[in-house]
Amino acid sequence: MKVEINLNDSVRVKLTERGLKIYKEYFKQFPIDCHREPKIVDSYYETQLHELMQIFGSSLFNGCIMPFETANIIVINQD
Questions:
Q1: Where are the domains of the chain?
Q2: pTM exceeds 0.85 for this model
């Protein structure tokens, strides 16, 4: 099965406590007006795929403590 996704597609993941900490640490590097709470929709964090990769990419490796409740990433249909 072939699945095509775009880096600009919106995705949803359930953040763990670790994921929330990583999220907040990531935005500390920017000016204070960039600090923001994650966009939570029905208990899922929603963002574009490229931003999810930017924020959490370095924390994802074999044996890591997952920043998401499960390894599932839900791609929201853009059509």
A1: 10-75
A2: no
Q: Rounded to whole angstroms, what are the CA distances from 40 to 3, 14, 46, 48, 71?
A: 26, 9, 6, 13, 18
Identity of residue 16? T
Report in angstroms the alpha-carbon separations of 44 from 23, 41, 62.
Answer: 14, 5, 23
Q: Are 12 and 44 in contact (CB under 8 A)?
A: yes
Q: CA nearest 8: which of 47, 58, 57?
A: 47
- CA distances to 5, 7, 48, 68, 69 from 1, in Å: 13, 19, 23, 25, 26
pLDDT digit string (tens) for 5-61?
A: 899 999 999 999 999 899 888 888 877 766 666 777 778 899 999 999 999 999 999
